[in-house]
TrEMBL record:
SUPFAM superfamilies: BolA-like. InterPro entries: BolA, BolA-like_sf, BolA/IbaG_stress_morph_reg. This is BolA protein. It comes from Acinetobacter colistiniresistens. PANTHER family: BOLA TRANSCRIPTION REGULATOR, BOLA-LIKE PROTEIN 1. Pfam families: BolA. Belongs to the BolA/IbaG family. The lineage of its organism: Bacteria, Pseudomonadati, Pseudomonadota, Gammaproteobacteria, Moraxellales.
């Protein structure tokens, strides 16, 4: 099972109404085909009800902890919402200064 699939499996434990896991590794330095190092996750779940943003992120980091070790996930952009906050679109990721040129 690849890293993206493992991340999806773990995030599904938060009972999401909506879940997107986007591998953004190709936009970062040192990329090669098949590399899995940078991800953006969009998680909409009732599990976040009453939690501050930092607490929502902590919940996500807790379920993804073993995937966040050296040589695995290097960066995780988190967008965590309760259903009433979700507008159908998360912010775009910024360009990486070390992205491959060309």
């Amino acid at each position: 099972m690849n890293l993206e699939q493992q991340l999806i499996e773990r995030l599904n434990t938060l009972a999401p109404n909506h879940l997107e896991v986007i591998n953004e590794s190709a936009g970062h330095g040192g990329y090669f085909p098949g590399k899995e190092s940078h991800f953006k996750v969009i998680v909409v779940s009732e599990e976040f009800q009453g939690l501050r943003l930092v607490q929502r992120h902590q919940k996500i980091y807790a379920v993804a902890a073993e995937l966040m070790s050296p040589g695995r996930i290097h960066a995780l952009a988190i967008h965590a919402y309760v259903p009433s906050e979700w507008q159908g679109e998360a912010p775009a990721s910024p360009e990486c200064a070390h992205a491959p040129k060309g």
